[in-house]
């Protein structure tokens, strides 16, 4: 069953508005082509990925009897739908800079459809739980080290902070659904290992392909800067290692680490002002991959 935490934040789907016209270069991340391509490719994964997260949780939604968890599922769906929508708009901006993000979106959507022919509902949910942990600990890194975002275009920094805040808000929803209805830690740990390999290879493949298609090979300076960004003392991947490994503990829960103060800090900042209304809604794709919203 979902656990109760004193400072566990309420989950709320927010409708945001960003203008990505200030993204006017391919190397938007501090001029580094490798770091820029990594996050362009990651953005391309979000529309099809978030759609799968929503669908995998929906497969179990009607079997949840806990009213609080049902409410959290509804808000989780709303948040993930809006993430998908906003990243699709961002991907158009990245495409204009030569990163071919819509094509990556389409290929990943086909890959997910193919995988789902062979995965059980339980395995799909386990993959979602795994991805949600990875995005949550990555979000914690960025919210705790916002100086690494200082060179980003303002619209991208604003989207980044909003997305990371909501990833932390709902970081336990898929996990609680899984534990309530599946409760198989070995199965979950197996899929985390598989997801980690799959995600790493997918990101690497599409990064290489985007550079080849853009005819933009990284410089030695890019390689050195990217190594520092990802693996340096204050590097993203290096600092994600411990919270990543925590997932494999037999008693792990996402809210073992209470980082709700990061959410509170964002709410008090100017970056929360990009919310355009407070209507509760769900935003997702229909079968034709068209973005639709349902007001609730």
Polypeptide structure, described:
With 296 residues, the protein is mostly helical. The chain has one domain. 62% of the residues lie in helices and 5% in strands. The chain has ten helices and four strands, in the order βααααααααααβββ. It has a two-stranded antiparallel sheet. The protein has a two-stranded antiparallel ribbon with strand order 3-4. Strand 3 and strand 4 (291-295) form a beta hairpin. Helix 1 packs antiparallel against helix 2, helix 1 (33-61) packs antiparallel against helix 7 and helix 4 crosses helix 9. The longest helix has 30 residues, at 67-96. The protein is globular and about 50 Å long. Mean pLDDT is 91; it is low at 279-284 and 286-296.
* Order of helix and strand elements from N to C terminus: EHHHHHHHHHHEEE
Report the major sheet.
2 strands, antiparallel
Helical content band? 55-70%
What is the typical, i.e. mean, pLDDT?
91
**Sheet/helix structural class:** mainly alpha
Q: Supply the number of structural domains.
A: 1
Name its key features.
296 residues, two-stranded antiparallel sheet, disordered C terminus, two-stranded antiparallel ribbon, globular, mainly alpha
Secondary structure: elements and pairs:
Blueprint: E1 15-16, H1 33-61, H2 67-96, H3 101-116, H4 121-144, H5 154-169, H6 173-181, H7 185-213, H8 220-231, H9 236-246, H10 260-267, E2 275-277, E3 281-285, E4 291-295
Antiparallel strand pairs: 1-2, 3-4
Helix pairs in contact: 1-2, 1-3, 1-4, 1-7, 2-5, 2-6, 4-5, 4-6, 4-7, 4-9, 5-10
């Amino acid at each position: 069953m979902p656990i109760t935490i004193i400072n566990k934040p309420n989950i709320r789907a927010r409708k945001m508005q960003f203008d990505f016209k200030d993204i006017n270069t391919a190397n938007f991340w501090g001029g580094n082509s490798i770091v820029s391509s990594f996050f362009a490719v990651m953005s391309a994964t979000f529309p099809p990925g978030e759609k799968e997260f929503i669908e995998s949780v929906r497969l179990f939604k009607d079997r949840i009897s806990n009213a609080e968890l049902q409410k959290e599922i509804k808000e989780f769906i709303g948040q993930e739908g809006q993430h998908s929508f906003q990243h699709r708009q961002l991907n158009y901006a990245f495409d204009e800079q030569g990163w071919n993000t819509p094509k990556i979106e389409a290929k990943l959507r086909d890959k997910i459809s193919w995988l789902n022919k062979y995965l059980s509902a339980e395995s799909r949910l386990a993959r979602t739980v795994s991805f949600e942990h990875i995005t949550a600990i990555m979000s914690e890194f960025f919210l705790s080290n916002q100086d690494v975002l200082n060179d980003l275009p303002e619209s991208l920094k604003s989207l980044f902070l909003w997305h990371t805040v909501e990833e932390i808000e709902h970081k336990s929803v898929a996990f609680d659904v899984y534990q309530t209805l599946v409760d198989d830690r070995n199965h979950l740990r197996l899929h985390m290992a598989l997801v980690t390999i799959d995600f790493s290879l997918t990101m690497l493949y599409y990064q290489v392909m985007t550079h080849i298609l853009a005819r933009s090979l990284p410089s030695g300076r890019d390689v050195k800067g990217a190594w520092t960004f990802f693996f340096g003392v204050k590097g993203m991947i290096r600092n994600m290692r411990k919270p990543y490994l925590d997932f494999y503990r037999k008693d792990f829960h996402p809210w073992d680490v209470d980082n709700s103060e990061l959410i509170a800090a964002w709410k008090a900042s100017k970056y929360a002002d990009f919310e355009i209304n407070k209507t509760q809604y769900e935003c997702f794709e229909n079968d034709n991959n068209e973005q639709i919203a349902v007001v609730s």
